[in-house]
Amino acid sequence: MFPAFVKSGLQIYLYFCIYQHYFQLFIKYIADTSQFITYFRLMLGLKLTTDPRWANAAEKSLEEILIDHAYCEQKAATTGISLIVQYPEFEKMVKECTAIVAEEWGHFRKVLKELEKRGYKFGKQRKDNYVNELAKLITRGGDRNEQVAERLLLLAMIEARSCERFRVLSLHIADPELKQFYHDFMVSEAGHYRTFIDLAKEYMPESYVKRRWQQILDGEAEIMQRLTPVGSRIH
Ligand SMILES: [Fe+2]
Ligand SMILES: [Fe+2]
Q: How far is the CA of 7 from the centre of ligand 2 (A)?
């Protein structure tokens, strides 16, 4: 009925959907089970975890942290778009990042809606020291494959830390609606983290990606030690 190339395309798409579905179920399972905290940290590779007291501070600065969160989502969408336009020849990346950009923009809208629901006003963006410091960790130059892989690893790092922060909020914040709100973000950002790591491996050898990922994790831990977590900021 269908030509062979359509059939194999459909098969690949189906496998991709199944993989994404079970990966998200797995994230939900381990994140809902507090004794899996170490495993969760190891899965994301993070060297440092966030003190749960930060979630209590965040709850007290809800308007500010929601505004900051909205900008995190906006930046995730914007960065995805610039990756697509700067590296259009990487077809798989373009396809997968296009889907992620749509999701991030949906996240931005969701956070704006939450602000509105609570009678808060959207405000101005503040300097993002965490992301600015992280950006210094990626290597410049090299060929196009290396450049795109570095950019993808930077995005993976931001997703991993956001995912961990959303998990802390979902577990330690008192408001049940916000618990679910942050839980849903955590699951989604974990999926993005996985996609960016997998994409980096498409363009550079696995050994390169592993080595660079460990170096970026070490650098991130050092940045985390320098930046004191504040309740009004996601990072
Ligand atoms: Fe997001
Ligand atoms: Fe994301």
A: 31
Q: Does domain 53-226 have CATH number 1.10.3720.10?
A: no
Give 72's contacts (C-beta < 8 A, 6+ positions apart).
162, 234, 235
- Residue 235, burial from CB neighbour count under 10 angstroms (0-12, 13-18, 19+): buried
How far does residue 43's CA lie from ligand 2's centre (Å)?
A: 17
The answer to whether 229 and 50 have CB atoms below 8 angstroms apart is yes
**CB 135, CB 197: distance < 8 Å:** no
Q: What is the pLDDT of residue 10?
A: 66
Task: Quote the pTM value.
Answer: 0.84
Interval 36-86: pLDDT, tens:
555 566 567 899 999 999 999 999 999 999 999 999 999 999 999 999 999
Ligand with an atom nearest the CA of residue 190: 2
Question: How does pLDDT run across 139-171, given as a tens digit for each residue?
Answer: 988 999 999 999 999 999 999 999 999 999 999
Q: How far apart, in whole angstroms, are the C-alpha atoms of residue 4 and residue 10?
A: 10
Could you write out the DSSP letters of every residue in 122-184?
-------HHHHHHHTTSPP-S-HHHHHHHHHHHHHHHHHHHHHHHHHHHHH-S-HHHHHHHHH
Predicted local distance difference test score (pLDDT) of residue 154 = 97
- pLDDT value at position 111? 98
Tell me how far apart the alpha carbons of residues 231 and 62 are, in angstroms, rounded to a whole number. 8
CA 186 – ligand 2 centroid, Å: 9
Distance 32 CA to ligand 2 centre (A): 20
User: Which of helix, strand or coil describes residue 16?
Assistant: helix
